[in-house]
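From the pipeline queue, job 12 of 40. The input is one protein chain; the requested action is below.

Action: predict structure.
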Amino acid sequence: FKAATSNRMSAILGFLNYQPYTGYDLKKIFDDSVRHFWPADQGQIYRTLSKMNDKTWVAKETVPQENRPGRKVYHITKSGRAELREWLTGLPPVRPSRSASLIQVFFAGQLSDEEILEKFELFISHIREVITVYELIPDQLTPYQQEIQSPREHFFWLLTLENGLASARANLAWAETVIQRIKNNEIPDK
């Protein structure tokens, strides 16, 4: 894995390897497909496309439009495909895990049982909302499955969703157990 290729660049190259897209189209694709594990905002996408254009991994084509500025459509280049392939075949990028919610749990002993219970009930509510959103993703992928008609690609797309759902459901089960332990007075007083 070369440090020169960021994961965001690789994700964009992956989408452009399917077909050319505008920055706006890429933002929509991120939101409809990989947001559950790899969100990107519009500014990040455009800045990354500019860097990738400088590296000649993408080529920008301006498509004229009537009464509007031209659309900037990005195409992956041969060197972009080579970069994507190198990234895909390299070691998986692993970063130390960080969790804002777990750092709060770590120091939660400083709160009352009632405050901790409220925190975990809110956490459970949030996780249930996340699971509901994840369950909608297969329907959001339908237009892309029609554009990119590869059952093999679809299979791997859904593997990421399975991982997200499994993680969310594991966190939900854990939080429900914590609430039960609080209600059973299992927390030491000091």
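Job complete. The chain is about 65% helix and 10% strand.
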